[in-house]
Design goal:
alpha+beta, 2 helices, 3-stranded antiparallel beta sheet
Length: 78
């Protein structure tokens, strides 16, 4: 699911009490980078590079899809 106000995907558990988890994907990482550049911030942060697909085994994208999305978002011209 996608939370448009925060530009992030999230998941809700089926357990009681309900638990919610926000996480980053390529789309949200790109939004973060674009936001940082637009507002002339010094950079972006993410929880852990360990969770990026560094061997391209799970996402069927090139290696490091989240890091590449951040780089692409920062390099976009406004």
């Amino acid at each position: 699911m996608w939370l448009e106000d925060l530009k992030v995907p999230y998941a809700i558990s089926n357990s009681i009490p309900k638990e919610i988890a926000f996480y980053d994907n390529v789309r949200s990482a790109s939004y973060k980078a674009e936001f940082a550049k637009k507002h002339e911030l010094r950079g972006v942060a993410f929880y852990s590079l360990d969770y990026d697909d560094f061997k391209s085994l799970f996402c069927q994208l090139k290696k490091f899809p989240l890091l590449n999305a951040i780089i692409s978002g920062i390099n976009r011209i406004y």
